[in-house]
Amino acid sequence: QTSQAEVVVFSVPSYACQRRSTLENHNAVLTDALALLAENAELSEEEGRGVAFRRAAAVLKALPRPVTSMTELRGLPCLGDHSLRVIKDILENGASSEAESTKQSERYKALKVLTGIFGVGAKTADRWIREGILGLQQLQESGQTLNRAQQAGLEHYDDLNQPVTKADADVISEIVERAVVSVLPGAQMTLIGGFRRGKLSGHDVDFLITHPEEGREVGLMPKVVSWLESQGFLLYQKTTRNSYLESKDGPGRPSSNMDRFERCFSIFKLTEKERRRTKHPETATENGLRTVSTPEPDPHSRVQISERSRCEDEELEVDQTKQAGHKLWRAVRVDLVVSPISQFAFALLGWTGSKLFERELRRWAGHERNMSLSSHALYDNKQRIYLRATSEEEIFAHLGLEFIPPSERNT
Ligand code: DGT
Ligand code: MG
């Protein structure tokens, strides 16, 4: 005997930024299917449909246990007719026929392969597919003109489609830290993106760099890039000015700050030697910030001894690796962002993700608070003022939201 009260079991707030979403997921079968349909919609440039599936998946991810019947979903937000059909199909038949047929479709497979090339987006992939190019071989034979990013993407295709581990992200953190300390003592760098949210793997490694004195960060990116280049760490890099004003994010930022906010898309060459060098990365401080001006406390002699024994181990291991025919390095996508300290909290919040969490924060700000949030600033449209913040906590407070730590932004 089931009473009405027992049927309504789950209660979930409608905005993802009001929820605590850890990496735990009790409904992976359902959310995998919805994520696949979301991805297919995004790759077909049907953004609205993509977001609808992403929101539905996020609600299921927030549930404390597996869904077993449709009645349990009553009253939950963000579950549209289409998503409900997909869920019903899975609960009744064990799989979603739509997700399965999408996964098998030539078009989806081709879109996946082609957008797997760094520098190739949905538009380019679609054009190629219409020209009959469905795979890498066909692309290479087609004589299509590829830009520099796409050439690098094709060259390092296998590596870049291999997940980056947390361990490798830590090694790259060390390298970026060395670069930053060499070119500007006192500068600070923070691991952002999925790794800041505690993910154990990712498609790239993202860093935010700043300096506690406003203005000192100007010109920092080219110096960091030159240093990395001179040390042979970069297989590819393209630095762009932040294209915020060209994006669809809406108003929100004084134009004087615009030329201070730069981004570098790069491909790192991560060698076995670097991996060994960084066996025990320092643990980051609570907010993820590391001041890079502090010198290592190790006495010189101790460093030398450990270097020597490490070198011997290394030679042996390198020999073994060579004999096994393995490549001694891998390519890794790395994104660097430089922000002035006055915008640091906004940049940190904006670049930690997840993408849906960010989208939901902006939607909440606009629809519920009449404010415009970006990675640069928070503007109150009613009072017509910018709201200052030096921490993520303050931004959540301005927005009237409970603070959600990075590890619970895995929507
Ligand atoms: P991953 O790398 O696939 O494991 O996952 P994430 O969460 O690290 O995703 P990623 O690296 O694409 O982006 C990290 C966050 O940075 C994402 O939540 C949103 C933000 N983000 C990415 N691209 C842009 C951009 O062009 N502009 C702004 N404002 N934010 C961006
Ligand atoms: Mg990332």
Automatic annotation (TrEMBL):
It is an enzyme of class 2 (transferase). It catalyses: DNA(n) + a 2'-deoxyribonucleoside 5'-triphosphate = DNA(n+1) + diphosphate. The keyword Nucleus applies. Mg(2+) binds at D204, D206, D335. Its main location: nucleus. Keywords: Magnesium, Metal-binding, Nucleotidyltransferase, Nucleus, Terminal addition, Transferase. Its EC number is 2.7.7.7. It comes from the Eukaryota. GO terms for cellular component: nucleus. One of its GO terms (molecular function) is DNA nucleotidylexotransferase activity. Its cofactor is Mg(2+). It is found in: Nucleus. Belongs to the DNA polymerase type-X family. Template-independent DNA polymerase which catalyzes the random addition of deoxynucleoside 5'-triphosphate to the 3'-end of a DNA initiator. One of the in vivo functions of this enzyme is the addition of nucleotides at the junction (N region) of rearranged Ig heavy chain and T-cell receptor gene segments during the maturation of B- and T-cells. This is DNA-directed DNA/RNA polymerase mu. It comes from Sparus aurata (Gilthead sea bream). The chain holds residues 120 to 530 of 530 of the full protein.
